Amino acid sequence: MEKRQFGQTDMQVSVLGFGGAEIGFEGASQATVSDLLAAAHETGVNVIDTAECYPGSEELIGHAIRGQRRNFFLFTKCGHPEGLPKEDWRPESLLASIERSLRRLQVNCVDLVHLHSCSLEELKKGDVIAALEKARDQGLTRYIGYSGDGAAARYAVDCGRFDSLQTSVSIADQEAIDLTLPRAAQRKMGVIAKRPIANAAWRHEQLPANTYHQPYWRRLRELDYDFLKGPDAPAVALRFTVAQAIQTAIVGTKNPTRCKENAELVKAGQLPEEQIQAIRRRWHEVAKEDWTGQV
Question: Which domains does the chain carry?
Fold first, then answer.
């Protein structure tokens, strides 16, 4: 699988990464996660992205890759402690969260910790960034980043204190392509695309019950891309995202065969430029002001 230089870090990351949200929220078994990560490694995936608030995800991943740490770059997020009703941006809480993540993942250090959808107001105070810098200084993480969208993501890029940005990029979520990706490229930050296939929301004939998928479903109904009516929809959606100014796209799944299928999709290479531009034009024609990046 294609590898890309991740900003100014020492990491060469696979263009596809494994996202750990789905295995947590959908209660995957340990055997399934072990099979998933074995399949991911077999296809060339070397990035695992998770978060403290994905129920059980860090523990499942930590057990699955025990003894295989060198095969993967481990990314996690902090700010929404599992079991609490809301976020907690106190520096002591962030540091405790990172230490807890290390225990769950069964490692001494992760490669990257992101602030998880931290507000612009909190970012501007500076304490949350300083907490991550302290974690880096203490050797708990090698690099630090921001995960989020909109004005907060732009501030995170412009402040110059983060190594990476994780943000929403897909056929149904294109704000970042103009708002933050060019600025991140100028600062030579690593960029991770989340939700790169827009939750495959086009598969549902009616509004999905899962509220997490509903905004993209509504957008795609209005965008009405021609390719969504055919069998190539997943390939076009994924290849559109990886064609943007990103280094890795995080895809979650509970199906080990899906890892191999996604790898085959990106092996097809660059989506034709005219198709990329057609998708961009349609977005600019249809997108409403409130179609902001989905946090």
Answer: 3-286 (3.20.20.100)
